[in-house]
Design goal:
This protein has 237 residues and is mostly beta strands. It has a single domain, classed as Jelly Rolls (Sandwich). It has helices spanning 3-21, 136-139; strands at 31-34, 39-43, 47-49, 53-56, 60-65, 72-82, 96-106, 109-118, 122-128, 144-146, 151-152, 163-171, 174-179, 182-188, 201-205, 207-216. The radius of gyration is 21 Å and the shape is globular.
Length: 237
């Protein structure tokens, strides 16, 4: 056998040996499509729309999944413009925004990834932490802390009639947010929120929306445990 053939045979053998000894990477858990029945609405109204989609047409909407999933949630939405009536935040500020909730233990302890449409287009990740308070009447709008990202990228302007996707996932305190499939925010939200073991959810302020929501399944389990519906889980401001 000639030397080039021998060398080729050795390379092929070593390559085969390498791939046979490297363990296969486990596939990521899949996504669970969220229907209206799968959401506990703690404020406002979410209506069913065609094609397993949801409709929001109220100044304030707050909701969370009534089953336990992994800490990953995605919403594909069409922004339809501002709501007819407008409602200011507890701080007095007027915003049009839509976002995702993670580790929503209650209305006082959770993580937000909010896409602000107006008055300024930006993505803000914040932690609301009030360890000794668990209802909105107790904590109000106290305990918010905006988290500085390790890495960011610009988010697009949002115009009425446009469709976009926002996805947020957490692994312990590490969090990543994707806008239209592109990493827009990455960072560590801090250790205090790890103890907040709650579901994922959605929130909107002064925005009319048509949307489809999906949640990351837990270890490929298709039927997650039922959490019931508690009005104060991931409630108001």
């Amino acid at each position: 056998m000639k030397w080039p053939a021998v060398i080729s045979l050795v390379i092929v053998s070593l390559t085969s040996l390498f791939y046979s000894t490297v363990p296969a990477k486990a596939p990521a858990p899949g996504w669970l499509s969220v229907t209206r029945d799968g959401l506990c609405v703690t404020e406002g109204v979410i209506q069913e729309a065609e094609g397993n989609r949801l409709s929001v047409n109220v100044p304030k909407m707050r909701a969370y999944l009534n089953r336990r999933t992994a800490q990953g949630i995605e919403a594909r939405f069409t922004y339809l413009g501002p709501t007819a009536a407008q409602s200011a935040l507890a701080s007095g500020e007027m915003r049009r925004q839509f976002g995702l909730k993670l580790r929503a233990q209650d209305g006082c302890n959770l993580v937000y990834a909010m896409w602000r449409f107006e008055p300024e287009s930006k993505l803000v990740v914040s932690v609301k932490s009030n360890p000794n308070e668990h209802t909105s009447s107790e904590c109000g709008n106290r305990g918010y802390r905006n988290i500085k990202a390790r890495r960011t990228s610009p988010v697009p302007l949002v115009h009425p009639g446009e469709s976009h996707t926002i996805r947020a996932e957490m692994n312990a305190a590490e969090m990543a947010v994707f806008i239209d499939g592109t990493l827009a925010w990455e960072g560590n939200v801090g250790p205090e929120i790890i103890s907040s073991d709650g579901p994922v959810g959605v929130r909107s302020d002064n925005a009319r929306l048509d949307l489809e929501v999906r949640a990351r399944q837990k270890d490929n389990v298709h039927h997650e445990s039922d959490l019931g519906c508690k009005s104060e889980t991931g409630g108001s401001d």
